[in-house]
Amino acid sequence: MRTLCSSTLIGEFFIIGFAALVAMKDDSLSTSTVWTVSGIAMAFCLVLCGVITRPGGIALGWALQIALIASGFAVPTMFFLGAVFAALWWASVHYGRKVDEAKARFAAQADSTTPDAA
After folding, report:
1. Is 64:96 a contact under the CB 8 Å cutoff?
2. d(Cα 11, Cα 108) in Å, to the nearest integer?
3. Exposed/middle/buried for 30, CB within 10 Å: 0-12, 13-18, 19+?
4. DSSP secondary structure string, 23-36?
5. pLDDT score for 30
6. Is residue 8 within 8 Å of residue 89, measured between CB atoms?
7. Do 79 and 69 touch, CB atoms closer than 8 A?
8. 2 SS3 class
9. Could you tell me the maximum CA-CA distance found in the chain, to the nearest angstrom?
10. If you placed Cys at 68, which of 7, 26, 82, 94 could pair as Cys (CB 3.0 to 4.6 Å)?
11. C-alpha–C-alpha distance, residues 43 and 32, integer Å
12. Is the pLDDT of residue 118 over 60?
């Protein structure tokens, strides 16, 4: 699960950076505000890559997905991209858990079929 979720978060890192470049063209937003908010969100993506398997990591990831969709109020394209990344996040969590379960099952099966060296 960690690999799939981290891949999604790294993709979001770049999308947030590109969205900040687009948001800078909006005269109602100051450059410092855009880069402060975007920088915090980008740093959050990177930090979340490291804590994804800890308790609350998945919930924090969902909070990031909601914030990404809400950023569509500043950059309208982000409504679509946020929804796409929320779907990717769901798939990463869902299928990542299935892969982790399968790995554990195969490891347990391999341990039980290994003859004792006694």
Report:
1. no
2. 33
3. exposed
4. HTT-TTS-HHHHHH
5. 93
6. yes
7. yes
8. helix
9. 76
10. 82
11. 16
12. no
Q: In this model, does residue 117 exceed pLDDT 70?
A: no
Length of the chain (residues): 118
Tokens of 112: 């039980």
Q: What pLDDT score was predicted for residue 52?
A: 92
Q: What is the pLDDT of residue 1?
A: 83
Q: At what angle do helices 57-70 and 77-113 cross, to 10 degrees?
A: 160
Residue with tokens 């998945």: 58
In whole angstroms, give the CA distance from residue 19 to residue 17.
5
pLDDT at 114 over 80: no
93-105 pLDDT, tens digit each: 999 999 989 998 9
Specify whether the backbone of 26 is left (phi greater than 0), alpha (psi in -120 to 50) or beta: beta
| Mean predicted confidence (pLDDT) in 23-38 | 93
The amino acid sitting at 80 is F
